[in-house]
Amino acid sequence: MRSLKLSLGAVTLAITLLASRPALAAEEVSISAGDTGFILICAALVLLMTPGLAMFYGGMVRSKNILSILMQCLAAMALVSIQWILLGYTLSFGPDHGTLIGGLDFLGFGNIGLEALSDTVPIPHLAFAGFQLMFAIITAALITGAFAERMKFSVFVVFILLWTTLIYDPLAHWVWGGGWLGQLGIMDFAGGTVVHISSGVSGLVAALVLGKRLGKEREAIRPHNMPLTVLGAGLLWFGWFGFNAGSALSANGVAALAFLVTNTCTAAGALSWVAAEWLHHGKPTVFGAVSGAVAGLVAITPAAGFVSPLSAIAMGLVVGPLCYLAVSKMKEKFGYDDALDVFGIHGVGGTWGALATGIFASTAINPAGMDGLLAGNPGQLLVQSIGVVATYVFAALMTYAVLKAISLFTSLRVSEEEEEAGLDLSLHGEDGYSNADMSGEGHAVAG
Q1: C-alpha dihedral over 223, 224, 230, 233, to 10 degrees?
Q2: pLDDT in tens, 362-391
Q3: Residue 96 belongs to what H/E stretch?
Q4: Which long-range contacts (CB under 8 A, 24 or more apart) does 92-98 make?
Q5: Nearest 10 degrees: Cα torsion 334, 337, 340, 344
Q6: pLDDT by residue (tens digit) across 56-71?
Q7: Predicted TM-score (pTM) of this structure
Q8: pLDDT for 332 beyond 90
C-alpha cells in the first residue's frame, strides 16, 4: 500500500512539473504590448524619414530634376522592402557564418513569426525585422544625393539592389548581427558606421566614378526650393526620434536618453554650423541651419544610448564646423561633385559620431554599454577607430566594384542631351512644375 501511494505521488509530481513547463516557457517569451507598440511607431517614424529625405534633397536640386530625386527615394523604399523580405534580413541577422555574414535560415522571412525576439527583448520577431527594414531603406536612399541629376534610373535600380545586398547587409551583420565588429566590442547604437559612414563613403565613390554634372564648372548650382528643403529637414528631425530612441528596442530609460540627446546634439549642430558660416561668410543662412541640424542628427546616431546630454552638446558643437569645412573646403580642394554633400555630412559626421562614442560613452549613463576614453577606457576609442576604417575600406571597394560591374553592360550616366533637358522629362516624362519654366536656368544644387 505504501509503495502504491509513493508511486501515485511520483506520477502526480511528474504530471505537475510537466504541466508547469509550458506555462513557464510562455511566461518567459510573453510579448510586451507596450514595447511592441513603441517599436511599431518608431518603425513608422523611420519610414517617414525617407519621404522627408526626398523633400530635403528635392529642394536642393534644380527644378528640372526634382521628380527624379523623389522617384529615386520612393524606388528605394519599394526595392529594399522586397529585397529585405527575400534576402536582406537573413544576410544581416541570420545565424552567424564566420563572423562575416548571416545564414539563410530566414530566407523569404522563413522561421520568423509572432514569437518574442528573445527573452530579454519581448517584441515579436516580425516587429524587429520590420524596424530594421526601415534602416536599410533610408541608408540606400541617402546615397542618391551624391550622384543626383546624372545617373540613369535603370542603373539606379540595379545599383541599389546590389549595394543593399553586398554592402549594407554584411555591414549590418558585422555590427549588429553577431559579426566580427560586434564581437570586437564596437558601440554603434543606431548606425553611425552601418548607415552613415557606409552611405557617405559609397556616395563619394559614386560621385567620383560618374564624374561632375554638366555646367558645374561654369556656374554655381544652388537649391531651387529652400522651403521644401526646410520641410524635409523637419521631417528628418522628427523621424530621427524613432531612429534613435527605437534602437533601445524597448520603451525604457535608454529610449528616453536616446530621445533627449538626439534633440540636444541636433540643436547644437545647427547652431555651430550657422556660427561657423556666419564667421566665415558674414551671414547666417537657412541652408546652413538645416545642414547643421542633419549633421547633428548624424553625429549622435552611434552614441545616442551611451552618452549624456552635456556630451551631446559637445558632439554637436564639433560636428557643425567640421561638416561645414568638409562641404565648403574639401570639395573645392579635391574637385569632386558630391551633389548634395552626402559624404560631407553623413560620411564626415558619421565618422566623428563613431569616434566620439569612444570618447564620451559612460557606463554611468547606460550600464549596458562600455566606458569611453573620458571614463578611463582608451581601448574603446581604438575599437571605434577599427570599425570606422573597416567600414570606409569595405564600402569604398565594394561600391567601386558594383559600379564597374554595371558599367560593363551599360553606361552609368544619362546622355548630355538628357542631362541638359533635365531628368524629370527625359527619364520620367513628367515635370514637377507644370506651369513653370523648366529650363532650369538660374536654379541649382548645393556645391
Answers
A1: -60
A2: 999 999 999 999 999 999 999 999 999 999
A3: strand 96-97
A4: 92/132, 92/136, 92/168, 92/169, 92/172, 92/173, 92/176, 92/177, 93/129, 93/132, 93/172, 93/173, 93/176, 93/177, 94/173, 94/177, 95/178, 96/173, 96/177, 96/178, 96/179
A5: -20
A6: 999 999 999 999 999 9
A7: 0.90
A8: no
DSSP 392: H
pLDDT one-digit tens code per residue, 51-104: 999 999 999 999 999 999 999 999 999 999 999 999 999 999 999 999 999 999
Three-state SS at 413:
strand
Q: Could you tell me where the DSSP H helices lie in 94-225?
A: 125-143, 153-163, 169-176, 180-184, 198-210
Closest of 195, 78, 210 to residue 149, by C-alpha = 210
End-to-end CA distance of the chain: 95
Are 358 and 373 within 8 A, CB to CB? yes
Distance CA(208)–CA(106), nearest Å, equals: 36
pLDDT in the model for residue 239: 98
Shortest CA distance to 345 belongs to which of 230, 192, 224?
Answer: 192
- Domains annotated on the chain, with CATH: 32-424 (1.10.3430.10)
Instruction: Report, as an integer, the average pLDDT of 291-302.
Output: 98
Cell of 45: 517614424
